[in-house]
Amino acid sequence: MTEERSHLRVQGEPPARWGAARLLMPVIDGHRGPRGPYTVAAALLRHLVPAAVERAAGLVAAHDIEILAAAPELSGLVRARRVTIDVGLSDEERILVPAPRRTLRLANGLAEFVRDVVRPGRALVVCNGAEADPTDIELLDVMARRISPRTLTIMVYSGGPEPAPDQRDIDELWVLVDRCTREGFLHAVVELGERGLSHTEPGGTRWWRFAQRTATALGGLGRTGEARELWDRVRRASQDPAMHAAGAYGTAMLDARHPDPARRDLVRAQGWINEAIAISSLLPDPAERAFKLGFDRNGLALIELRRGRLDAALALVESAIELARELGERHPLHRMVLLANRAQLLAALGRTKEALEDYASAIAMDPAVPDHYLERGNLLFKLGSYEEALADFERAILAGPPMPEAYYNRAELRTVRGDLDGALADLGLVIELDPGYVDAYINRAGLLAAAGRDEEARADVSAGLALAPGNAYLLTVLGQLETAAGRLAEARAALDLAVDRAPALASAWGNRGVLRYAAGDPEGAVEDLTRAIVLQPEPDLYANRAVALRALGRATEAEADEHRAEHPG
After folding, report:
1. Which of 215, 204, 270 is nearest to 240 (CA)?
2. Which residue in 5, 58, 200, 249 could disulfide with 149, CB within 3.0 to 4.6 Å?
3. What angle do CA 317, 357, 398 make, to 5 degrees?
4. 354, 346 Cβ separation under 8 angstroms
5. Alpha-carbon distances of 164 from 12, 32, 140, rounded to whole Å
6. Element (H, E) at 28
C-alpha cells in the first residue's frame, strides 16, 4: 500500500528533526518583516532558478515576469523578456498601479514554474506562516491547490522564530514601497507606507510620496473609508496646489470606482474631480498643467461613462489627447492609456473602424500590455472576425502571467465556432486559475448540460451557486437539469426564482416554457416562450413554441414558428 500524501497547515513551529522526510530545501522563514512581499517565493526561487537556468532555460524564460516580480535579485540570471514601457520611466510618468488580481496571476505562474521544475517526492516547509505577507499566503494557497502533494508536499507552520528588528532607514523603505506599488503588492504598500508616514514630516515631499502611494493602494483594495481619511490628511497637512489637485482626483475616484456599484456617488465624484480640474488649470508650469489637466479630464470621462453619457466621455478623452500633444515624447504611458480609453468609447458608440485604429496605436506603443489585446479581441469577436479575435486572445495569453479572462474569452469564441472540447478545456483552466470565477461555472455548466453531461453540469451549478447564491444564469441551468431529470417541482422553483431575479434573461423564460409544457401546461409554455422570443428570438425558441401551439390546436401559428425555426433571419 502506498503512503497517502497531503498538504498540511499546522499550528505551532516545525519539528527540529525531519527523519526520513526529503526536504526540497531548508525550512523557509515566511515572516514578512525582514523582506516584505514574496519572502517565501524569493527563497524558493533562489533555490530553484540557478539549476533551472541550466536544464530548463525555456521554462525560466516563459516565467520571467513572475520570477523577477517575486525575486528581483535574480535579474543577473533571468533576462527580462517581456518588458512594458513603464520600465525606466520617471516617477511622475509611472501613472498605473496594477489591480489586486495581478498577484493571483503571478501566483499561478509561479505555481506552474515550481510544479514543472521540481523533482517529485519532495517537501517544502514554511514556518511563521501566520506572519507571511498576503502575496505569499496567496501563493501557498495556489500551490497547494495546483501542485499534487506527490510532486511537492507543502507544509506551512504558523509559528517560528522572531525575526531580527527591521533596520531599514526611510530611503530604503521608500524604495520598497515604490517597488511594491509598481508590482501591485498593495497590502505591503499600505503597511509599509503607513510606517513611512509615521517617520516623515506631514506635508513634506517625502511624506506626500508615501501618502499618495498608500491612499492609492487603499482604494485599490476597496478600503475606501481609510483611503478617504488619508486624502483628508493630505488636505489638512499641505497647501501645495499639486497635492490638493491629486487629493481631489484620488477622492473622486473612490466614489467613481467603488467596487459596489450601489455605493458609487457620481455627484460627489464630479464635485471632487471639478476641484481637481480647477486647480490643475492654474498650475504655472505648462507641461505639468497639460499633463495634470489631461489626467483629470480622463477621470471626469470615467464619471460620464458611468452615467451612460458616452459622447460627453469621448469629448473629454479627446480633449485630454489634445493636451497630451503638448508633452512631446514625455508621458508615453499617459498617452497610451488615453488612446485605449478612446478606443473603448468609440467601440461602445459603434465607431468600430476608429476604435480598431486606436487599439492598434496603443498596442504599438507597448506590445507587452495584455489588456489591449483582450479588449481588441472582444471587439473583433463581436464583429464576427473570429480568426483575428483568436489571435488577439492568444497574444494576451502570451503577453504575461496566466490571465483567466483571456482563456474565458477564447472559450466563448470556441463555443460559437462549435469547438466544444476546446471551450470546455479553456473554462476548466479558468476555474483552475481562479476558483471564484462565477461566469466560468455558468458557461461550463451550460455547455455540459447541452452535451447531456448532466452530473458534471450539476456539480458546476452547485459550485457556482455556493459563490453566487441566487445567480439567475445558474438557476436557469439548474431548472434545465431538474426538468431533464423529471423533478418538475424542483425545476419550477429554480426557474421561478431565475425569472424573478433576471426578468430580461431569455433563457430563463425559455426553459420555464419547456418545463410548463412538460408539466402539461401548453398555454403557460406558449406564454413563457413568447416572452423569451421577444427578448431574444432564437430558432430553438420558435421550435419549442411550435410544439406547444400544436398541442393547443393552433396549427397555423405552429407552422409559422416552424418556418422561423428553419429559416432564421
Report:
1. 204
2. 5
3. 100
4. yes
5. 19, 11, 24
6. strand 28-29
pLDDT the model gives residue 240: 94
- The contacts of residue 437 (CB under 8 Å, 6+ apart) are 404, 408, 430, 431
Residue type, 154: I
Bridge partner residues of 123 (DSSP): 23, 153
pLDDT tens for 473-489 read 999 999 999 999 999 99
Residues 535 and 512: their CA atoms lie apart, in Å, by 14
Do residues 376 and 344 lie in contact, with contact meaning Cβ atoms separated by under 8 Å?
no
Distances (CA, A) of 217 to 41, 180, 209, 212, 326: 22, 10, 12, 9, 30
What pLDDT was estimated at residue 166?
79
**152 backbone dihedrals φ, ψ, rounded to 5°:** -150, 115
Q: Would you say 246 and 288 are in contact if contact means Cβ atoms under 8 Å apart?
A: no
CA dihedral for 438, 444, 447, 451, sign (positive or negative):
negative
Output 16 or 203, whichever has higher pLDDT: 203
Cell of 165: 528588528
Is 271's pLDDT higher than 80?
Answer: yes
Q: What is the mean pLDDT of residues 489-515?
A: 97
C-beta atoms surrounding 5 within 10 Å: 14
CB-based contact 228:258 (threshold 8 Å): no
Distance CA 315, CA 321 (A): 10
**pLDDT confidence bin for 1, thresholds 50/70/90:** very low
- In degrees and rounded to multiples of 5, residue 403 shows phi and psi of -120, 100
The percent of residues above 90 in pLDDT, for the chain, comes to 90
- The DSSP letter of residue 23 is B
Q: Is 122 helix (H, G, I), strand (E, B) or coil?
A: strand
**pLDDT of res. 357:** 98
Please tell me the distance from the alpha carbon of residue 100 to that of residue 404, in angstroms, as a whole number. 14
Cell of 554: 393552433
What is the average pLDDT across 117-127?
95
